[in-house]
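User: Please fill in residues for this 328-position structure.
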């Protein structure tokens, strides 16, 4: 009985968080769900799109919706604007000489936070991009011989401009693999955009008065509840089949890794919880496959990128559908 109460509270908390974000971010329900999926799966998310679609506002709204450990305080939110002249020490921090103590002391950089907005990450050089690798993968930063642990809640929301834009550096495969999900924020539909224009002052006011609906501890508890979400063996098999098929497909040069499959399972659990369930379904598989796997694959050409993964997914959904018929 107590476990049911915990689950019900968890589901209620998620809906509170979604509703709070939607006061500012209009017409982006699926994108909000995917961002929270990455958060609850203890991962990170990459958002790609043209400037002006609301990516930065989304990150700020999420951070302002979570309270810190002290009553009334917000979680430690940092924003880094990536530029070509940025250095790794601008992210990690550096040693500064202390005149009083007569020794070098480490001054922590903006990576030591709870929610990090890495804005336009592909405008910085690959050397700077790689500074994020250890902290995203292992929740720690090593400088010299000293390793500094990051906060228990550490969530990176990175944005990037389309790689065709001038002055961008494509993220290497190792960096992309650290992001659990990659989504395209996209423009809203015509009706929603008209509503935004009519009420843009009200939306700005909402941004300034976003309520803290959940505490950091409640987010950590949600992450624990996510691990308890039930996955049927056939869904696990489906993930294995999709991962294997990406390695054998003639139009895919580099397929998904075993780590990709584990990430896929974690995201399935989190996406189910975000959608109010304690079990994952075939529909969950359908709705998150592209966001989880597409950025981890290297295709032969643009035509293959549009068709290869979709074909693999359709094949697996068809198999699951036949299994369901056979069981009835």
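Assistant: Residues filled in for all 328 positions:
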């Amino acid at each position: 009985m107590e476990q049911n109460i915990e689950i019900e509270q968890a589901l209620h908390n998620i809906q509170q968080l979604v509703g709070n974000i939607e006061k500012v971010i209009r017409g982006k329900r699926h994108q909000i769900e995917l961002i929270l999926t990455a958060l609850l799966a203890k991962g990170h998310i990459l958002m790609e799109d043209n400037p002006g679609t609301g990516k930065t506002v989304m990150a700020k709204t999420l951070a302002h919706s979570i309270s810190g450990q002290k009553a009334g305080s917000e979680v430690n939110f940092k924003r880094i604007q990536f530029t070509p002249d940025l250095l790794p020490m601008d992210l990690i921090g550096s040693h500064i000489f202390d005149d009083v103590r007569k020794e070098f002391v480490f001054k922590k950089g903006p990576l030591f936070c709870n929610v990090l907005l890495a804005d336009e990450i592909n405008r910085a050089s690959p050397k700077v991009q790689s500074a994020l690798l250890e902290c995203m993968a292992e929740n720690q930063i090593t400088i010299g011989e000293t390793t500094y642990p990051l906060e228990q809640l550490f969530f990176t929301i990175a944005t990037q401009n389309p790689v065709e834009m001038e002055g961008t550096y494509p993220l290497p495969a190792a960096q992309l693999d650290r992001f659990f999900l990659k989504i395209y924020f996209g423009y809203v539909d015509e009706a929603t955009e008209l509503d935004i224009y009519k009420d843009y002052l009200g939306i700005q006011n909402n941004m300034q008065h976003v309520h803290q609906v959940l505490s950091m501890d409640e987010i950590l508890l949600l992450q624990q509840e996510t691990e308890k979400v039930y996955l049927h063996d056939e869904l696990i098999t489906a993930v294995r089949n999709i991962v294997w098929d990406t390695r054998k497909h003639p139009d895919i040069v580099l397929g998904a890794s075993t780590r990709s499959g584990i990430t896929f399972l974690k995201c399935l659990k989190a996406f189910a919880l975000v959608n109010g369930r304690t079990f994952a379904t075939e529909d969950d598989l359908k709705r998150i496959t592209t966001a989880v796997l597409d950025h981890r694959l290297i295709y032969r050409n643009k035509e293959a990128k549009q068709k290869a993964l979709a074909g693999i997914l359709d094949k697996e959904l068809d198999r699951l559908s036949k299994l369901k018929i056979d069981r009835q």
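For context: The chain is about 50% helix and 15% strand.
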